[in-house]
Fold each of these.
Amino acid sequence: MTRLVIALVLLTALLMVASIVAGPAPFHAVQAVSDLIAGRPTLEALVLAELRLPRAVLGAAVGFSLGLTGAALQGLMRNPLADPGVVGVSGAAALGAVLAFYFGLTSAFALALPLGGLAGAGLATAFLLTLARRGAGTATLILAGVALNSLSGALTALALNLAPSPYAALEVVFWLMGSLSDRSQLHVAVALPFMIVGWGLVLATARAMDALTLGEDTAASLGFSLRRVRLLVVGGAAAAVGASVAVAGAIGFVGLVVPHLMRPLVGHRPGRLLLVSGLAGAALTLGADILVRLIPTRPELKLGVVTALIGAPFFLLLLRRIRVEAE
Amino acid sequence: MIVEACEITVRRGGADVVRGVSLTARPGEVLGVIGPNGAGKTSVLRALCGLDPLVSGQVTYGGRTAQEIGRSAFGRTLAYLAQGGRIHWPLRVAEVVALGRLPHGAAEADTAVARAMAAADVEGLRDRTVGTLSGGERARVLIARALAVEAPILLADEPVAALDPYHQLQVMELLRTGARTGTAVITVLHDLTLAARFCDRLILLKDGRALVQGPPSEVLQPDQMAHAYGVTVETGARDGEPFILPWRRCGVPRPLQETSL
């Protein structure tokens, strides 16, 4: 377990370095780092601080959020088909960002997009937490999430339908595909605090996740408050995933596939799976984002397209081998 | 630790499924909860476990309520074996049993886990994953999980359902062993002979109410059985231990025997 975590941390760190170095334009990373540390305002230092570093950090953070929350939601629901999308926050975040586009706020100031996404995620989270506080069961929460996702999808489609010009619609569609290109330190500053809070809340449920292996009643008899666990997981997932979608758009399949990949490596223990899935999610997302930049297409492939293209067939292969349930 | 329920009422779906039931379970004793389907047996057990809120009445454990004990300490006070318990991920047997140590800190294999596995006779299954177990093996693993809590109170909901006769006897002997070490054991049972042989006292429920409680010989009277279950019973004894067989439904004429030509 400890060895696995160390290996994944090293892999993630390595991929972050690779992510900083990788790119269509030649880039002297060593020179850039020494310039940045010495405070020399060279072009290299600027590219590193304003483009490459934020992209690598966001790649790791978004991937960690997706992997971690995917594992947590699968553990909470004891259902291997759950993914971060089921809480409905990703759809709401996308809608918030699309509305910011639609009303032209994005041309007024650059941060309107992620802030719109955060606002959408925040509203959806408030709704879900109100339900959870009132003692709604896990199934009710998830169904509410599915309904939220459908409503957000419909409203997003409506905004596209009523888009003032085809170019505006195209821009929205591209954004929805998910990408990490041209993200700045501002994006990191907007999203990372929410993600870190979300990670903390979700990771705090590791022991309860193990107890839930035996079902909700037995977990409760072992001294765990299910209402608290639901609040932590739903609230934490909403914060982390909402912030991810707000800055990077929708990146599919990472949250679904990564827990399945990691589960055999932790003896199927849902508590241990959390941190490990987060790290593997970070590595996978960084890897896919490097691939996006190495494949020479014009325009650049979108990250969400690549993760889905790799993820979906891979998941099908995985299903052949997975015994979905213990019984 | 003594468990005392005083006039508890539980409501579910707008109906009172438990109505003013009082009971006492003492350390070193096996208390059997019996009654027909829908009588409220599982509801009583869930209420004792604090899983469902009480409309009225109260349950105390060693004189204190669950709230006074506090949530995490309550997890160490009481072990609950759910009816037809499922194990949702293909963990190894030793890890499933170790989940019983969560209220004590981490779910790690320790001496309590070893004791529980020995008691439930699942040491040989240690490294198997739960998906490969038979129904009887899985039931014993879940019992070991409950024993691993080493709580002074053990609540078991139909622990012998779906087990063959050999494993039914094995599980009932396990509950008796638990009681001998000072645990207060409360178990829901359908099999009247197992109730008669392995329980110190019984509580007979019907329609959410307690009809009668006391030693098996008093509770398992033919008129009580006819009233509660609507069946006539045949009783007897072997090696000084009673057995009781449901024989015929009350008020239903004896079915015609098919005659072969």
Amino acid sequence: MSKAQVQASARAMRLRRFSLWALPVALIAALALRGRETATNWWRASDLFPQPVRFDASAPLAGADWRVVSLQRVAERPDGTTVALLELEATVRDPAPFALLPCRIALADGTGQRWLPTFLAPTEVSRLPSRRNSQAKTCGPALASKPEAGAVLAIAESFLLPRAAFAQVDVVVSLAGGRPHYLRFARGS
Amino acid sequence: MRLLLQFIAILAAAGMLLGMQRSTPGYAEITGPLPASGRPGETIPARSFTLTVEKLVLAERIRYRAYGRDFERSTTGLWAVVVARLEARPESVSIGGALWRSTAGFRFEASQRVAGAPRLLTAGRIEPGLPARGILVFELPRDQAAGGTLLVSTARWPRLDSQARVSFAADAAESADVLDLNGLANE
């Protein structure tokens, strides 16, 4: 084999080795490019980082300051269900991120169980004198009303949960403009 | 000899690729429902709920009270009423998909003719820690009732989400001429 042939063979070998090492890099790069949008959407839609807040304190999220006004037991049903009413107050600071939908408000316990808002029958709402003439909206319509900076919104949501769980649940507030961060108003603190 | 070996290797590789291509499931199958299967009486854990089927009753007619009135519904086929218990975990859920798949492969959605009937599991929300016992009602042709499978999911068309599947033996159903849904749900 001539010297030129040996050099050509060594060059081809180097090229093949380079191609072999480049393959995993190219695969990872292709996956990252293809999945970037999906990963971004997942990041913006997930509740990943809880921000613990004292139950009687106020905390900023998605362009507003949030405060729990009350979490009350409205009624008890014979099957052990508690009907609960949560009232929140949001003071809008930046309307743009605040108006992004959807919003998620839930009650959560320490074991990972979450109760989502449910429709409350008017007969059960009227048990609370303070609610009879209330203008409070649920979270979605409150955000969709596109309030201006400085507006103070009353938000109310109702829940059905086991009697034993009521005393232990925290209030979770998650907004599209704040994710993956969310507020957790802890009952114990 | 070496040429022959290379030829055989290429043929084997082509055959393998063809086999892989033919056996690769389609997109709809890959992203379809994730089955969680069981039998009546078993508790079937799905991603966001558990399902326990107590019994299946086939009836000629059903009777129930709704909106302050008594209703009686007849059918040219059969009413299939499944009594089941659902528990949400870890989050509140609604049952958006309840299907009856017959042995012939036909799928029947839960009947809309019984709106307002008591304890319909497709009507309300299931909350964690508050298991719900209720009914699922299907209206089936007579030849599609025996040995079917109940499919239950939170979404009507579940994609990459659990679907609880309960297979019934051909002789698993109780039968009734007129079935009182009020009594069945509250018994």
Amino acid sequence: MDYAAVIVLQVAYGIANLALIGLGLAIIFGMMRVINLAHGEFLMLGGYTVVVATNNGVNLWFAMLILAPVVVGLIGVVVERVLIRFLYGRMVDTLLATWGLSLFLIGLVTTIFGPTTTTTVSPPVGALKIGDFFTSGYELFLIAVTLALFALVYAVLKFTKLGLLARGTMQRADMAAALGVSTSTIYMITFGLGAAVAGLAGALLAPITGVVPTIGAAYIAKAFITVISGGAAILAGTASAAALLGFINQAITFITGPTVGEVALLVAAIVLLRLLPTGITGRFFRRGL
Amino acid sequence: MNRWPDKGRLVAVGLIGLVFMFGAPQVLQLFTVINLTTAIALAVLALSLGLVWGFGGILCFGQTTFFGLGAYAYAVAAQNFGDTTGAVIVAILVAAAAAAILGYFMFWGRISDVYLGVITLTVTLILFNLIRRTSGPEYKIGTALLGGFNGTSAPPLQVPWSGAMLFPTQMFYVAMGALLIAYFGCIWLTRTHFGRVCVAIRENETRAELIGYDTRLYKLGLFSIGGGLAGLAGILMANGIGRVTPDLFGLPYAAQAIIWVIVGGRGTLIGPVLGAFGIFYLTSWLGTQQTVNANMVLGLVLIGFVLLLPKGVVPWVMERVARPRRSAKAGRARVRAGRRAMQPAE
């Protein structure tokens, strides 16, 4: 019984991990049709924010939950103003430009902090005892934060004026502009929000993975698989794809080890796209958000 | 219709290539010649992406998938067979087959070009992670250990049926010869009926389909050929460094392949090749300078070209060169204008 609880927790963590990594990307992609290949580097910047802040004596909780999203969100706003806004409607070019941005950020961070792992942050939550088994309390905390984050994004999109304007702009930018909405500002804020969520995710995962300039490459594959398999709906898509792929990944990992688990994740995603080319929410939960 | 309006230019390119092939080892130091072999391998990779992306409109961000698979298949097969001629054939076939399988899922799933880029990139990154974890003695194919992060050794090419190993200079001849053959092979391919249909699909897939072509088959064919060519690049690369490592699948090579094509020019074949040589020397030079991080410069180059010169250098230069002559020689200009119409639409 206790063993089953531990396994369920592991599967839930695998799902939460994918959802957390993918959400920032999904916001930017779902809202703006911009595929941000620098997403992994936004996560990396979130991690570095935590490392730098805690080294300078800032409280870890504050650095992780407040400082990292704010810093990376601001970087996102700058990136949108300097680079992305020239490329709306040119999807392939945004892909290439954000890839250039990704390389640039890797190079910049390597120049500043050096190419090796910077001081890792130890998880602020200790181990948790379930019956005879110990499991990571921090993973449980991450599951809770992911749920809270999804609820928060849902509430912002559904119940605030900003959310209403953002959804309107997403559906018909020209009509929103005709009604007096500054779509350019909305795009800027959306991109900043997506970057902030990515920064938060990177900060939260920093204690588990450590921080290296090239860590983005480890995240980006999983994030893209999740978001593309999810389809157009931001929250429903990311959540359903993360649930399906996270379950497959953890199940296969449990049976055969992590090497095959990651391949199973990829194969499942490619087969899924063969069956549902528009992603899960292209067929199911169409009215989801 | 004249399919070879630029015969003179092609002959010139071929001659320059031959002069370079036989001249470079005479005047350059051995170290430089070995380095050049690596650059040539990368140029073949650039050529494969230039063919697939520039002429088929297939936005493959993970061309390194087939590059790495070709290199690994060559190393593993050569260690098992003890002979490299068979290994070369196996490697090219493995790479082309991998492209065919991946292509089936993508083209029959009707995935749009942007998703296609992301999926191919994901495939190469996952392979990178997978191969990196194969360090234990249980991960072996035949007698060849995969070796995880450190990779495995790639036996140097041998003369077919004799078993005599090639020296680095001879390896350079082989690599350069392969590049020239691959280049002119690609030129020929893009001017066959098959190649023209691929260009038509790139320009307007729906229209090509309505005319009656099964666009999925044509794309699959082109993608498989590109995969095989990338596999050949992998073989040359394995010979250039003498080892195959998971880095061949990694993000740096995948990103550089895109940069070569963007800088050189989509829709041309010489552009990606020149782009590969140029960026190779830029990164080597930056490596010796030790002042600026190479990734940072590459990132800025990519952003700069996307924003300011999205067509690439070669088409830009060709337009500048072709324009003043048009009034003087109207006949040849018309041919040039026809060729310009073959360039991808913005």
Amino acid sequence: MKRIFYIAKYEMKMLFKTKEVLFWNIAFPIILMLLFTAIFGGGNTIVINVGIYDQDNTQISNTIIDIFNQTNVTNIVLIQNNETLYQKLSQHELDAYIIIPKGLGRNVTSGYQAILNIYIDNSDPNIADISKGIIKSIIDGFNNKTRGIYEKFIEGVGNFNKTMIEHMRAYAETLKPLFKPVKGTEKVEYKEFILTGIIGYGFLFSSMVTATASIVNERKEGTLKRLLLTPLKPIEILVGKTFSALFNTLIYTFLVLAIGIPLLQPKIHLNIPDLIIIVVLGSLSGIVIGLLISAIFRTTEGAQGFAIIIGIFLQWFIGIWFPLEMLPSYLRSLSNYIPMTYALNVVREILLYGDSIIMHIQETIYLTLFVIILYGIGGIILSRLLKTIEV
Amino acid sequence: MKALEVINVSKSYNGSKVLDNVTLSIDEGEIFGLLGPNGAGKTTLIEIVLGFRRRDSGTIKIFGREISSREFNKKIIGYVPQEHLLYDNLSGLDNLRYFAGLYGVKTSEFKKRLNKIINFLGIDENILKKDVSKLSGGQRRRVALATSLIHDPKIMIMDEPTTGLDPNVRREFWKLIMSLNEEGKTIILTTHYMEEADELCSRIAIIDNGKILSIGTPEELKKKYGGEESLILRIKTRYLDNAMELLSNYQPEKVSEDEIKLSGLNEEYIPKIRNLLENKGIWVDKFEVRKPSLDDVFINLTGRRLISE
């Protein structure tokens, strides 16, 4: 019994002397708890980007714009011409757009019901539903107000003839929303969203975590020592490890598609060359982060644990499981700093909407620069580490 | 030609010296042993030569060429570490292929070398097909040795090459080491097995607490520091005290409950001692002439035994 007590006592002592263990056992669950509360807890407002192209430019059309502006769930982008509209649509900057046609104001003041064409970007099924709901409720609110005026008017004045009452009813349902999909944005189902998301998952786990593990396991098993005995240069070890993780991710990606396509039967555009380019960039972004982690941590357990946790964290921020628009704005801005977000976004654009990589040259350049800069930094750090390591 | 020269090399960790001004030189074609207990500094010295650890001071030359703190000629040296340092989830053959590739051995050349090595080391081809994790300790050691030989190095550094092997496998391994030496390779090995050092090494450096205490052939060391030969008598315990009294002129020393040691005597004295005791009805079960060993050398140099199996 006494021996068991001693084992327990000294095991705990050793356990609590290890900082990594303290972090994973205590700090991490707390951080995870806070994170989930932040993401899924109440009080979050989803803001959708609504473009309004006011071709009417009357007092009535301005009133409609004001109503949209007054809500805290829409970010109104005023569109001045067709070119701006197409540009913003092609860049998926708008979740929906409304065209206020010329003559709407005149129709309304003449007592006719006005149809409002609302175009919803269906590329993200969740956001499309949310956008539709938000816009509909705003228009309903507008209509309810006008219905109130109508009812008070009927009560106050009374004795209207039939034609006048019909006129007033039309006024009460002033705006009738007519939802249409934005041209080219086919309805994407969750299975398509998640299939592409799982490819992004590979950037984190098949790339980043694998890259970290490949270095730290070599250290742990002592085989790094054996490698350093060969004429290999540190940079060759790094490049070799990079390729290994990269191939791992490419194999993973094609396995996901090979299994996912027959099982889920998604509507996707298989543009393999462009997909490979963006997967390579996304994977390299993950690998270089993984290699840096392996260089920063002293213990193999610390490095591997950290890489896994970073992977678990980032999966919520790069849009694997749900659209980034569902994140609170302060967390959404964090996503913009993660290169894998861009890579996954382009993967989706290619597979779901048949885009080419040229159409996403900005993201591609950003990813390429990120990879080049971090490999430059990481290469120097890791080469030094491997040269000076006392294995 | 000197294969390796270590000149005034020192190394400290956290203020304590693990190597203190170590100087030694090893001739080409030698089997040179570094003999010392665990923690003596043998592995640190080897790792400094290999470039795994920085030296605080001193010079190292390989075939006359001075090497910097982090450098060594990777193609000249083959290293057999204490741990087998193979990829457990790869087969022995894949490990060999992998390391051959890293050393730049061409495929055609690899096949020739592989055949030569597996014949030389007596490795069954079927064993090479198995994952390293499924091999026995002796088999792993052979595969590890094979990976160290695949680039045909001139110098083989072996760090405790037979630690953990059973005595029979160890003896087989000694034969391999001697064969390698006969092939023209310079062998540097660290060991804490005296018998191993005695059997294999042409010269030995005795190292303790980071200092080289003495260097010489096993015979030179034993002659210089091993002390005298002695005669050991095994007698039944009940006669031991009488025997001690009868042998008092020879300054007997009770070694155990049934053993007496007579220092300075050799086999020539056996008939005389036997007569002396048998005349008084004391029968000697066994006579043994004990020659000075490297253990005696170590005791005389350090005042304590070199612990080994």
